[in-house]
Amino acid sequence: MIQAFDWKKFNELLVKWMVISNQPFTEVECPEFREMIAFLKPFVGEKMVKADQLKNLAMEFAVGARKRLKKYLKVCKNDVRLQRLTRT
C-alpha cells in the first residue's frame, strides 16, 4: 500500500536538518539541493518550501518548543522534590 506523502513531517525534518547543521535557509533554493530531493521523490522537488517559508516554519517550531519548555519548567518549579534540591 502506498502511503500519502506527509508534508508536515518532511518540513519538520527539513527544519531540523537546517538548524542542527547550521545551513542557511536559502539552501532549499539551491538547484542542486532541489535536484537531489526531486531525484528521491519527484513531486517533492516541485512543491518544496522556499527559504522564507522555511524560516517561518523554523520560527513556529521554536515558539512551540519555547512554550513546551516554559510549561515544563513551571511543573518543575511546583515539584516539591525539586524545591528541596534547590534549597541547599
Give the topology, please.
Blueprint: H1 7-20, H2 31-40, H3 42-47, H4 51-78, H5 80-86
Helix pairs in contact: 1-4
Characterise the protein shown here.
This protein has one domain (7-86). The chain is mostly helical and 88 residues long. It has helices at 7-20, 31-40, 42-47, 51-78, 80-86.
Features:
mainly alpha
| H/E series | HHHHH
Span of the ends, CA to CA: 59 Å
Number of helices: 5
Task: Tell me what portion of residues adopts beta-strand conformation.
Answer: under 5%
Integer average pLDDT: 81
Structural category is mainly alpha
The gyration radius over C-alpha positions equals 19 Å
| Strand tally | 0
Describe the sheet with the most strands.
none
Total number of distinct structural domains: 1
**Level of helix content?**
over 70%
Low-confidence stretches: none
The rough form would be described as: elongated
